[in-house]
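Hi V.,

You were right to ask for the full record rather than a summary. Here it is.
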Amino acid sequence: MKRIYHFLGLLQLLLACCISSCSNHKVQVTLTRAESLMESYPDSALSLLKGIEKSDLGSREEQARYALLLSMALDKNYIDTTNFQVLQPAIDYYLEKGNANEKLRTYYYQGRIFQNMGDRDNALNAFIKSMDVSSESTDSVSIARTLVAEGGLYHDFYDFNSYTNCYLEAAKIYKDLSLKRNEFDCLLNALNGAMLLGNQNKGDSILALCDGFSDLDSTQEVVLTGYRLSHALEFGDIPEIRGLIERQEDNYDLDTNGLLNLASAHYKLGNYVEAKHLLNYISNNRPGFNTLKYQAILVPVLENMGDYKEAFTIYKQFSHSIDSINTFKFDQKSKSIEEKHKIELKSQQDAREKAKIIWCCIGGIIFLIMVVIIMLLLFRSNKSQKDLAIERAKSSELENKRLKSDREKLELENKNLQLERDNKALEAENLSHRVEVLENESASLKELIDSQEELPSEVQQAIKVRIEMLNALMAGYITDNEQYEKPYESWIKELTDNTEEFMNSNRLAFQVSHPRFIQYFEDHGLTVGEINYVCLYAIGLRGKEVGNYMKKRSHVNISSGIRKKLGIDKHETNIGIYVRKLLKEL
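Predicted structure:
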């Protein structure tokens, strides 16, 4: 018996699943059919959707689809809803998991409900969110409708620049979809925005687009004529305005805005009585007319007709309305600033939350890394203990090698000491030879003085100074005593500090010791100063050192002049090398 009960229970479950499956399939077919009829026959789509029982809706996705389609059908049938009871399942599901098309439509109808509730701020916010996902959406019609709704709100907020741009973008989309009527309506709104902005270039270009429509019906022609008149009143001249008035056969067939434009045109032409008559007709027969525009036209008409009291009364009403609008604009700006501040605070809060999550993740990663490091250290410790025995065995062998290496180092140090002693002996021998050379040079200078009594006194004095310097230098080298080198250093400083005197002394010394060397430069026309300059190279200075010693900016010019006189090309050789080579040869 238990098996029979189990079997019957399983059979009932299977039957319920089959019924549910059939029901879900039927609902899906009905939803698809309603969606296909939505644009052309919205009343039929609404009837199909109302025929679906909510209990037949299964998953959240199916409930969301039904909610969105029903909201679309109600809106297209001009049934304004002022709560989110119908659309809420779509909001809950599509704004989180829907694709771009589903999000765009949900935001759009959310904005429409806010509009029906009179909450224009939240409505505009919903439309803006809808446009944020439009770049990924393929539903061009819904994008255009969102732009139209957004533009209408911008008009209410007196943001005429955004109002104009939204309708221009919508017109482009409708043009691509070949929806001429919708495109025409959007262009007329954009034209109205251009005139409100006083932008003649944009107004002219939009009016030219409107004039390009060739298949307009009578109603559209009347509306376009009214906008042409508005354009002429804003940007045109008197002849153009008069021509547009004459083209209108029956003035009273115009809409309210057209009649207001016509009254303004008669005022500009000076027909104050006709303008006042049209304004009276509007106030008596056209309820809901544009009060501000009516008052703006009526005030100058009454003023020109001499009714100053009534004109002043109307002007006060007009000023009060303008002040109210300016106050509204200020309030809207303040609200916008508050909203931006709230958004910034929310962004900061989100950033802090994200930072917490990031730091928690980083902390977790660091903890895992530490655990891994500890495990690696333990593994290495075990391995090191195993390797310790091998290391101890190797250490004795390394010690033996170290002792052998120490012995080899000791032998090498002994060899280095011997080489050092040999080097010192060689240095002593070189010093002895250098002293001998200096003694010979000193002796030769003395002989030169003794043998040439006719030498000028300044030459003899220069040679004597150099002999004394050489004697002091030799004494210092022989005795290794700094006391002998002090007079040598003072002589050098005293002699070289006076640049001109030293260079003359240096030249005179070379004139005695190497007369052919000096004669060579004199034969090539070098001046005394140029020979002094060359002799600095002869004692071993380099070009930069010569310039630093002379402290003259014309150092390069002197070198260039000497090269020309000696016939040396500047790329041929260094002047210092040339002079020292010449000194050896002469």
